[in-house]
Amino acid sequence: MRNALAIYHVAFEDLGSLGGILTRSGFNITMADACALDWSEVDPLAYDLVIVLGGPIGVYEQEAYPFLVPEIELIRARLARQGPTLGICLGGQLMAAAAGARVYPGTAGKEIGWGALHAGGDISRLPALSGLLNRQVKVLHWHGDTFDLPAGAWHLAGSDRYANQAFALGDYALGFQCHLEVTAAGLESWYVGHAAELAGAGVSVPQLREQSRRYAPLLAQAAGDFWRSWLAGVFA
Fold it and tell me: Which of 31, 130, 135, 221 has its CA 20 to 30 A from that of 61?
């Protein structure tokens, strides 16, 4: 049995469909609330896998949310030792920051909704991701910030609006700006938890719900295939 630590920032942005895949792949999962965690008690190398999940704050808001400082340090320590690490949305931005890249508000505005991924220049480094580049498969985008690609990172995917949607650091660390883990049922909590953001961005919840019902099942299948392939490669 391997041990995984999943760090979340708001409870409803959870592991989604990835949780069941990790369990079936033999992982014991510990969930940790980044906002309330005693970071001095966390050994960054004690887990076989660390997953850093999303949230509605910016990496650069460290004065308002000081826990971001030790969180970045934990990720940096894992990267230095090539400890398997996965970052999703805010987690991917934190990984980029830990690897020395700039994270900042996106100049193309908020990207909220379902859309396709496009192959990055280094997609051949991770061919398993190609299944998510099928035009029939849409991923969920829900962010306003973006990041520069860390030095030495593989550029795996982008979107119509933002170039950096997926990157890897070697075969041990993977960062996503987009969400592969969401389910249609789980997103119901997002619509409430992010109600102010959706209203401010002029996003229709009924329309987004209908898109989620249409695209989430296809995503779950394609993402499941990808997660299993990636885990098998990292933990071969």
Answer: 31
Q: Is the pLDDT of residue 147 over 90?
A: yes
- 3-class DSSP assignment, residue 58: coil
- Cβ 24 vs Cβ 50: under 8 Å: no
Partners of residue 155 on adjacent β-strands:
167
Q: What distance in Å separates the CA atoms of residue 144 and residue 58, rounded to the nearest whole number?
A: 9
Angstrom distance (rounded) from CA 52 to CA 122: 23
Asked if 201 and 107 touch (Cβ cutoff 8 Å), the reply is: no
Which residues partner with 147 through β-bridges? 103
C-alpha span between 178 and 166 (Å, rounded)? 8
Q: What are the C-alpha distances in Å from 229 to residues 45, 90, 215, 226?
A: 23, 23, 21, 5
Task: Measure Cα distances from 214 to 184, 206, 211 in Å.
Answer: 9, 13, 5
Cα–Cα nearest to 179, from 127, 134, 142: 142
Report the alpha-carbon distance of residue 11 to residue 24 in Å, rounded.
22
Reported confidence tier of residue 236, pLDDT bands at 50, 70, 90: confident
